[in-house]
Structure formats: structure tokens, C-alpha cells
């Protein structure tokens, strides 16, 4: 288990970009509501095609350049325009698509503590993976380091899964995601994980 002080150190620039991330700007974003503090971090998973890792398809999807004829599944997401602020690859590599100060289109119809439109006040992090497989040690290291730097910059009070804010509609990051592992590595208080038991 990596102790929090053994995590890589990420830094944010003045425009909300992590300097250590590969920057791949997506056109799928807009402005947050004025004076809306960022209080929530949302963890997702994604793989394109489903269950396949390591290709360019996820960035291509977020940048509206996916070849929808390249795989049968891609036809199902034709015309869909979404993004996330970050993607953590299986090897722990970090990619960023939208400035943290802008509103990425990751949560969809969602609600947190009675507040709807979670995109307005959240940052979205996609983990390359599926509901059916464990995530890698490298992904936890990157996610924990990212969580720490984001909480230093923004008033993030809670970390939740997509399934927590869109129950019945979404299932990610799935049953294999180790919430308490993230809590320990990112030095989160138990109350920062409002949907998880305090064990």
C-alpha cells in the first residue's frame, strides 16, 4: 500500500490544468454557473470498445473524432457528445480533457444531497476499466494524487461514484472499486465518502 507521502506530486496551473497530465482538449464543455463552488469529485469507469484497453478510442470519443464505423458498439454512441475532466489509464498515465474550472459533460442527469445537475459543481475522473475487473495499483496511485491536489485547490467536500449520483441509470465505477483504499491513500476523512461505510 502506498502511503500518502509516497504519491506523485501533481500541480495545477492558474487555468485549472494539471501540469503533469497529457493535455488533450475536448470541445465538449461549457462554463459553470457563476459563483458555483466545486464541491464534488465523481469517479467513473470507461472502456472503448467495452472491455478493451490501451487504444485511442476514449480520447477520440471525448474529442468528437471517434470513427463510429470502426466497431459495432460505436454506432450506439454515434452523436453523443460527452467529456470528463480526466482519464486515468490502466498504467496510471493521466490525461486531461477539460479545465477543472470549466464544466465537463460527464455526469448527465444526476443528484447529490438534493442538488441536481452535478456537472455544475463537480469534477469528473474516468478510470480506464469496467465494472467487471479490478482497477490497477497504478490507477489508485494516480487517482489518490489527483484527489489530493484537487482538494487543495477546490472546496471538494465529497467523493462519489457515478452510480451514487445517478442510481438506477449508472453502475460505475462498479463493485471492484476499492473506496477505502482511495480513502487511505488520499488521506480522506470518512465523511468525504458519504456513500461508503466507515470501515
Kindly state the number of beta strands. 10
Low-pLDDT stretches are none
Q: How many angstroms separate the termini?
A: 17 Å
Strand line-up of the largest beta sheet = 1-5-4-9-3-10
- Beta-strand percent range: 15-25%
| Overall number of domains | 1
Rounded to an integer in angstroms, the radius of gyration calculated over CA atoms is 16 Å
Helix and strand composition category:
alpha/beta
State the CATH superfamily name. Peptidoglycan recognition protein-like
Fraction of residues in H or I helices? 10-25%
The string of secondary-structure elements, in order, is: EEEHEEEEEEHEHH
CATH topology, what is it called?
Lysozyme-like
The CATH class, by name, is Alpha Beta
Give the second-level CATH assignment, the architecture.
Answer: 3-Layer(aba) Sandwich
Largest sheet: 6 strands, mixed
Count of runs of 4 or more consecutive helical residues? 4
Mean pLDDT: 97
Principal-axes geometry comes out as: globular
